[in-house]
Design a protein that fits this description.
Length: 90
């Protein structure tokens, strides 16, 4: 859903993760592999000033960052998931 743009305001897209993933760590935009996810990221990058990939397990990532490295991977522990859930309750 889009709101009316205000002059000079940045547009930020929040792109949800997908069930299809790589079996190894990778930057968030490459880690999720579904066609819908990739199309959504492409549209968001073309129409917004910033794009954030969000995941209940890994949290939010920015280009070149994320929690600290910009890389998501299946080797992450449940602790990361629990932390993301805890942050969403605040």
């Amino acid at each position: 859903m889009f709101t009316q743009a205000k002059p000079g305001a940045s547009r930020v897209a929040l792109v949800g993760c997908s069930a299809r993933k790589l079996d190894h760590a990778a930057p968030a935009r490459k880690f999720y592999t579904s066609a819908l996810f990739r199309a959504t990221v492409a549209y968001a990058e073309a129409t917004c000033n910033a794009v954030r990939v969000v995941s209940a397990l890994y949290g939010a990532a920015t280009r070149g960052s994320s929690r600290t490295t910009g890389t998501f991977g299946p080797s992450e522990s449940g602790t990361a998931r629990d932390g993301a859930c805890e942050r969403s309750r605040r």
